[in-house]
Design brief:
232 residues; mainly alpha
Length: 232
């Protein structure tokens, strides 16, 4: 019996079950749309802990992170959504009416690409680290442009997930968890390049706000170094 519980079949089955629970929690908690940032942060909190071999109770960890990071995650979502909405409106409406220049079109594409890259990292950063609010954006921007292969792979992966969901909506019960799990593997590899000992912090460390009575010391990513050349 012990051999069964230690087998790969059991471990993979447990992982799939956890990812399905996470996917459904993320989908339900993201329904108001404005809560999608907090849901994504909670999703990354659980999956990055799994990558760090810190598995706990999936639903408990999800809702604890959701509650603790709700305000910051919501503000981040709004900050990221505003330029995206403006860029899309400008591209769809104003380009059609006024025939904007090619330079403006290139600027819009670059802006959307940068925002997508920042989004890849920022909620994972919020899930695992306690930083000043502006540092989340600073580090996310740095990672997005420094680790281009991880950034591009994650963006392509989310495009594939959206395509699959549009074809088969029932896959919402597994796709968000699968996306978060596999991108967490890549993102955690990036984080460990700057904080090799990040998995050795205390077992229960969350992104509490300053002054929380339950707060414990959490690792903080230092200001990113100035690279001499981009690392792919």
């Amino acid at each position: 019996m012990n051999d069964f519980f230690n087998s790969k079949i059991f471990r993979y089955g447990t992982l799939i079950g956890d990812l399905m629970i996470l996917s459904m929690l993320w989908a339900v908690c993201s329904i108001p749309i404005i809560t999608m940032g907090a849901s994504t942060t909670a999703l990354y909190y659980v999956t990055t802990r799994q990558i760090s071999h810190r598995e706990g109770y999936v639903s408990r960890d999800f809702f604890r992170s959701f509650r603790q990071n709700f305000i910051r995650a919501t503000l981040m979502e709004i900050i990221l959504l505003i330029p995206v909405i403006l860029a899309v409106l400008n591209f769809v409406v104003f380009n059609y009416i006024y025939r904007s220049s090619q330079l403006m079109l290139v600027f819009q594409v670059v802006l959307c690409a940068e925002l997508a890259g920042v989004t890849v990292y920022i909620f994972a950063l919020l899930a695992r680290f306690k930083l000043k609010f502006g540092q989340y954006f600073k580090n996310a921007f740095y990672f997005a442009n420094r680790h281009i292969s991880t950034t591009v792979t994650s963006i392509v992966f989310v495009g594939l997930v959206v395509y699959l969901f549009m074809r088969w909506p029932i896959l919402v019960i597994i796709l968000p968890g699968v996306y978060a799990y596999f991108t967490s593997k890549m993102i955690m590899r990036v984080f460990r390049k700057y904080l090799p000992d990040m998995d050795k912090d205390e077992e229960e460390t969350y992104s509490f706000y300053e002054g929380s009575s339950a707060e414990k010391e959490t690792p903080v990513i230092p200001d990113p170094p100035k690279p001499s050349s981009p690392e792919v």
